[in-house]
Amino acid sequence: MATSTVEPDYRQGERCRLAKVMRHFVLILILGLGAWALWPREDAKAGSSEATREGSASRKYTIRMAPGLYMPGRRPMNLGQPLQGLYKVRDEFEKVFPDTHIEFTEVPVSSREYLVTQLAAEQAPDILNVNVEDVWQDIQKGWYVPLDDYLTQPNPFIPQGKPGSKEWWDQFKYQSITRGLGAPDGKMYCVTLDMIETGIFYNKDIFKRLGLQLPKDWTEFMEIHRKLKSAGVTPLLANTSDMADWGMDLIFDQLYNEILPGLDLAKDPKREVYLDGYLDWDELSFLFRQGYFTKRDPRFVSVFRELKTWRQYFQKNMNSDLTKLFVTQKAAMWWTSSYAVNRMVRDPDVKFDWGVFYLPAMTKQHNRFADGHDQVVIGGPATQLEVTNSAYNDTDDPKTSVKLKRTIAFLQFMCTPENTHRVVNEVLALLPNIIGAEPRPELAPFHEFLQRKYTTTKWLYTFDLRFNEIYRRMLDLYLNDGIPEGEFMEWMETNLKTATDTVVRRKQLDLSPLEAKWKELAPIRSKMTDLAGVN
Predict the structure, then answer these.
(1) Are strands 100-104 and 431-432 parallel, antiparallel or unpaired?
(2) At 384, is the secondary structure helix, strand, or coil?
(3) What is the pLDDT of residues 102-147, one digit of tens each?
(4) Cα(85)–Cα(383) distance, rounded to whole angstroms?
């Protein structure tokens, strides 16, 4: 039997009513979106935002900057008022250069895939905030502008007789740290506006209640962990990512320092002032070929055993909200950076006294490979501003580009003490790196930490993304009893072989000078014990 295609009257009525409701809904939605679009943003109400300024589109040069933490209009950690520092600096700069517009943008600079894509297409912001170790991986590609010629010239915004009036370089407070950021090719690619460092935040109330004193060495540090755990308190908050980065670098330095004179194969006078003994990718690659950083290297194995021993005192879930756990007093210590000071000072939920100390040294009594030297720092430069190849796209030639001159001028303008203070001290997190811009008193401990020597190497900033991803994943499994030590070390060795082969091939590294230095240092190594491979 054929089926009728004519709907009953009641269904037609339902459709009519539904259509009317949908029309009203769409109208309400359009009106609502219109009202939302016209409603002034919080940052627009607070100051001179992009939304309230006129005439910017007609200006000859537009400089795009990705400022990271200092993105105006944002409220870091959702505390305090929306940031206005860079808006004020931008407005003053544009009065000096009316033909130039500064535009602030947020980009995922932590994503190397994004950066590589944008830089290769010459679409990246003119000014980026990227860890300089990431920049070093790409210096041979011409994506970043060397800044040496500008740094050795006067900053035109500095009065005569003040630091910076002869050389821009002279403005930077932490000179050795800042100059130590020179790339392996001998050039400088970043302007370091401020500093960051890690530390152990601790709950003074819990320490007092349990009669605990700050540790003098690693043995006492571990004893504090044991006492806290016995008292039913989570001793330390940390995550796998930090262990793979900070933990690895610090313990590696503690256990390798004694034999470093026999392993440091390349010295750059410009960088050695701060990066004394720093092992770059070429040195790590060469040393790996000699048997170091393998399962046959007793120090390398010991580094991970130390991390594994330490792990038992952390929170159970490595993906927990560590800030919340510390603020709610669920743990006694928290290994994090100076960035957390902003919350600890401004969060009304913090109901206890707290302090910060640095990690203590390992002695031979704790580990036979340690020599008791002070722990090094692993932070240092925070906001590292680089100029990309987009900055001279007006002429495609950095020598003739007016836009590039304006870009450099804006960085110099930011580096006046007044403007650095406006930007950096608006957020209670980092220490200004410009003479005349004093840090907030709450950050004083981190200034003291920064007087220490820098780490021996940065494993997560040396090789490619593939190495980092495998390393993090396998370390997480190892620390959380997912795989045994032997299997983990096999993974590490295989991963490092691939990473070192890749970096040698991609960068066309010539290891022969390192081979010559290796032979020269043989008498020094002959007096050392527990070395790996052929010495």
Answers:
(1) unpaired
(2) strand
(3) 999 998 877 778 888 899 988 999 999 998 888 988 888 999 999 9
(4) 15
Helices (H), 110-188: 112-120, 132-136, 148-151, 175-179
pTM: 0.83
Query: Which residue bears the tokens 């400088």?
Result: 188
Q: Which residue has the higher pLDDT, 11 or 77?
A: 77
55 — pLDDT class (breaks 50, 70, 90):
low
Residue 465's H or E segment, with its range, is: helix 465-479
CA 249, 251, 256, 258 dihedral sign is positive
Please choose, from the candidates 292, 291, 249, 289, the residue with its C-alpha nearest in 3D space to the C-alpha of residue 509: 289
Task: Enumerate the β-bridge partners of residue 335.
Answer: 200
- Cβ atoms of 239 and 322 within 8 Å: the answer is yes
**Residue 512, helix vs strand vs coil:** helix
Q: Is the pLDDT of residue 309 over 90?
A: yes
CATH 3.40.190.10 in the chain: give the residue spans: 49-192+384-429, 198-379+463-525
Euclidean distance between CA atoms 402 and 405, whole angstroms = 5
- Which residues have a Cβ under 8 Å from the Cβ of 185 and sit 6 or more positions away? 139, 140
Cβ–Cβ under 8 Å, residues 479 and 440: no
State pLDDT tens for residues 427-464: 999 999 999 999 999 999 999 999 999 999 999 989 99
From the list 381, 382, 364, the residue with the least C-alpha distance to 373 is 364
- CATH architecture classification, 198-379+463-525: 3-Layer(aba) Sandwich (3.40)
Query: Which tokens hold the place of 274?
Result: 């701060």
Amino acid 260 reads L
CATH superfamily, with its number, for domain 49-192+384-429: Periplasmic binding protein-like II (3.40.190.10)
pLDDT at 273: 75
User: What are φ and ψ of residue 9, in 5° steps?
Assistant: -60, -40
Q: Three-state SS for 63?
A: strand
337-369 CB burial, b ≥16 within 10 A, e <16: bbbbbbbbbeeeeeeeebebebbbbbbeebbeb
Strands 380-381 and 194-196: antiparallel
Q: Is-contact 252 456, C-beta < 8 A?
A: yes
- For 469-489, what is the mean pLDDT? 97
- In the prediction, which pLDDT does 53 show? 58
Measured CA to CA, the distance from residue 362 to residue 216 in angstroms comes to: 10
Closest of 163, 151, 154, 153 to residue 188, by C-alpha: 151
First to last CA, the chain: 94
> Cα separation of 311 and 47, whole Å?
46
The pLDDT score that the predictor gives to residue 9 is: 39
Provide the residue count of the chain.
Answer: 535
Whether the CB-CB separation of 361 and 373 falls below 8 Å is answered with yes
For the chain, what is the total number of helices (H) and then of strands (E)? 23, 12
Pairing relationship of beta strands 431-432 and 354-357 according to DSSP bridges: unpaired
